[in-house]
C-alpha cells in the first residue's frame, strides 16, 4: 500500500505499534475487574485463568503477526478470512468488528462521563461525552500519526502505572514499604488459592478474555505501518512478555496483598475508583492521593480505548467500502490519508448509542452493548481459522516457509488451541443461566444475542452471493486489498 491519493498512509512507527499492541489490552479490565476476578476464583484461580488466556492471546497474536507481516492490509482478519476461508466469513467478521468497536466507543463515553463526576459531581453528562467524542474524533481526523502518537502516550501512562504498582506491591510483600511483610499468607486463607472450583475459574476465563481484547488492533494498524515486515514481528515478540509482566504479576501482587474475601474486591464499577485494587494497594503503601491519581489513570485508559476503538472501526468500515461490502462513499480518503466519511459515520453511531444510554432506563443501549459483548471472541476465532488456512494454502502453493517475514511457532497447535478456548468461552458466556431454577431465559438471550446476529449476517451474505470455501490453490497472496467476490 503506497502513499498515493485515496490510500491510507504508512506513518506508524515501531514504537507506535508496540504500544498499540500492549496498550490495547490494558484498561478497566485490569484496573477495576482484576479484584472481582480474585474474589470469584481466589488468587490461584484468577492467576491460572489469566495465564491460560494470556497464552491463548500470544498464540493469536503470533498467528495475526505471521499474516500481517506478509500481507499488511487494514482489513486484517476480515480480508484474511475472505481470501483464505470464505468471502462470506470475511464480510461477517468485518461488520462484526466495526459494530463491536462503534458500540464500545459509546460505552467508553459513558465511562469517561462517570469518571469526571468524581471531580465534578454536579456537571452535565452530555458536556463531557461531547468533549471526549470531539477529542477522539479530532485525534483520528488529523492523521494516522495523530492517532499513533496519542495512543503511544495514553499507553505509556497505563504501562508506567502498572510497573510502579508492581514495584510498590513487591516492596510491600517483602515488608520494605507499608509495614510488616505480608508474605504468602493471603494465598492460603480459607479455601484459597483455588476458591469455587473449576466453574469459578471458567467464569474468570471470560473476564480475562474481555480484558485482553484490543491486542488484535495491531493487525488493523499493520496497513499503516512504515515497515510492516520488520516492525510487526518486533511488536508481536514483545506482547507475550508484556502480557506476562503486566497482567500475571499485577494479579499475583493483588492476590498476595488483599485477601480474596475482602468485600471491596466485589465492586468493579467505574464509579468505585476508591475501592479499585490498585487504589487499595497504593493507599496501603501510604500514598494518600492514590484515589485521585488512579481516577486520572483510569480516565486515560478509557480515552485510550475510545481512541483505539474509533481508529479500528473506521479502518474496518473503510476496507468494507473499498471491497464493495459497504456503501462506496465510505471509501473516500482525504489528502492526509484519513477515511473521513467512515470516521464521521462511526463517530455518529457511537454518539447515537451513547444517547440511547441516557433515555429511559438505557434498555436499548444495554441490548446494543450485549450484542457486541461476544464480538471480540468471534474476531479471535476468525483469526485462528484464517491463520490455519493461510499456512495450509501457503504450503499447498509450493511456497517456502523460510520466506515468511515472521513465522508463528507451534503451528498448528497455536491456532487450534486458541480456536478451542475461544469457542469454550463463547458457549460458556452465561452457563449459570442454564443452571438456575427456573432457567433464566432473558439473561441467556441478552448474553448470547451476538452469536445468532453474527451467523445471520454470515449466512445471509453466503446465500445471496453464493460464496464457497476458497480452495487452497486459489487463495490469493498478493498485496491488493480487494477480496474475491
Describe the overall structure.
The protein is mainly alpha-helical and 485 residues long. The chain has helices spanning 14-23, 28-31, 33-70, 76-84, 87-119, 125-142, 144-173, 197-212, 217-221, 228-257, 277-284, 290-322, 340-356, 363-373, 375-396, 413-427, 431-435, 441-448, 450-465.
Topology:
Blueprint: H1 14-23, H2 28-31, H3 33-70, H4 76-84, H5 87-119, H6 125-142, H7 144-173, H8 197-212, H9 217-221, H10 228-257, H11 277-284, H12 290-322, H13 340-356, H14 363-373, H15 375-396, H16 413-427, H17 431-435, H18 441-448, H19 450-465
Count of discrete alpha- or pi-helical segments spanning 4 or more residues: 19
Distance between the termini: 21 Å
Whole-angstrom Rg = 22 Å
Order of helices and strands: HHHHHHHHHHHHHHHHHHH
Shape: globular
Structural class label:
mainly alpha
Portion in strands = under 5%
- Describe the largest sheet: none
- Portion in helices: 55-70%
The number of E-state strands comes to: 0
Overall mean confidence score, pLDDT: 85
Report low-confidence residues grouped into runs of 5 or more: none
What descriptors fit this protein?
single chain, 485 residues, mainly alpha
Quick recap:
68% of the residues lie in helices and 0% in strands. With 485 residues, the protein is an all-alpha fold.
Amino acid at each position: 500500500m503506497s502513499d498515493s491519493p485515496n490510500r491510507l498512509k504508512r506513518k506508524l512507527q515501531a514504537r507506535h505499534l508496540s504500544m498499540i499492541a500492549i496498550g490495547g489490552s490494558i484498561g478497566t479490565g485490569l484496573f477495576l475487574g482484576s479484584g472481582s476476578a480474585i474474589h470469584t476464583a481466589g488468587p490461584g484461580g484468577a492467576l491460572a485463568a489469566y495465564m491460560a488466556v494470556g497464552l491463548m492471546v500470544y498464540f493469536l497474536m503470533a498467528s495475526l503477526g505471521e499474516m500481517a507481516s506478509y500481507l499488511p492490509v487494514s482489513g486484517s482478519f476480515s480480508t484474511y478470512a475472505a481470501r483464505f476461508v470464505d468471502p462470506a466469513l470475511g464480510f461477517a467478521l468485518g461488520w462484526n468488528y466495526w459494530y463491536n468497536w462503534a458500540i464500545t466507543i459509546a460505552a467508553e463515553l459513558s465511562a469517561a462521563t462517570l469518571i469526571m463526576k468524581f471531580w465534578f459531581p454536579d456537571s452535565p453528562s452530555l458536556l463531557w461525552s461531547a468533549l471526549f467524542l470531539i477529542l477522539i474524533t479530532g485525534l483520528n481526523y488529523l492523521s494516522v500519526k495523530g492517532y499513533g502518537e496519542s495512543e503511544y502516550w495514553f499507553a505509556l501512562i497505563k504501562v508506567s502505572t502498572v510497573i510502579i504498582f508492581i514495584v510498590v506491591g513487591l516492596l510491600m510483600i517483602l515488608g520494605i514499604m507499608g509495614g510488616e511483610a505480608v508474605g504468602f499468607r493471603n494465598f492460603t486463607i480459607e479455601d484459597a488459592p483455588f476458591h469455587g472450583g473449576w466453574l469459578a475459574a471458567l467464569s474468570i476465563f471470560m473476564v480475562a478474555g474481555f480484558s485482553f481484547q484490543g491486542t488484535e488492533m495491531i493487525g488493523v494498524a499493520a496497513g499503516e505501518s512504515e515497515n510492516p515486515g520488520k516492525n510487526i514481528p518486533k511488536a508481536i515478540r514483545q506482547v507475550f512478555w508484556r502480557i506476562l509482566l503486566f497482567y500475571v504479576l499485577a494479579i499475583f501482587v493483588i492476590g498476595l496483598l488483599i485477601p480474596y474475601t475482602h468485600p471491596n474486591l466485589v465492586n468493579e464499577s467505574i464509579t468505585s475508583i476508591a475501592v479499585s485494587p490498585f487504589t487499595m494497594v497504593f493507599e496501603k503503601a501510604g500514598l494518600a492521593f492514590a484515589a485521585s491519581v488512579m481516577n486520572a489513570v483510569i480516565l486515560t485508559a478509557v480515552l485510550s480505548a475510545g481512541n483505539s476503538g474509533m481508529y479500528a472501526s473506521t479502518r474496518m468500515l473503510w476496507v468494507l467500502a473499498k471491497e464493495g461490502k459497504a456503501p462506496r462513499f465510505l471509501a473516500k480518503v482525504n489528502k492526509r490519508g484519513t477515511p473521513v466519511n467512515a470516521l464521521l459515520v462511526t463517530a455518529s453511531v457511537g454518539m447515537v448509542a451513547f444517547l440511547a444510554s441516557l433515555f429511559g432506563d438505557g434498555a436499548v443501549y444495554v441490548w446494543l452493548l450485549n450484542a457486541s459483548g461476544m464480538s471480540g471472541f468471534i474476531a479471535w476465532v476468525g483469526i485462528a481459522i484464517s491463520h490455519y488456512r493461510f499456512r495450509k494454502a501457503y504450503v499447498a502453493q509450493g511456497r517456502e516457509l523460510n520466506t515468511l517475514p515472521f513465522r508463528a511457532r507451534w503451528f498448528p497447535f497455536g491456532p487450534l488451541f486458541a480456536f478451542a478456548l475461544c469457542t469454550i468461552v463463547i458457549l460458556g458466556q452465561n452457563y449459570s443461566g442454564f443452571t438456575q431454577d427456573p432457567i433464566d431465559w432473558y439473561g441467556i438471550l441478552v448474553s448470547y444475542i451476538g452469536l445468532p446476529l453474527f451467523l445471520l449476517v454470515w449466512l445471509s451474505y453466503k446465500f445471496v452471493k453464493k460464496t464457497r470455501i476458497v480452495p487452497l490453490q486459489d487463495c490469493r497472496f498478493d498485496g491488493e486489498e480487494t477480496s474475491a467476490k
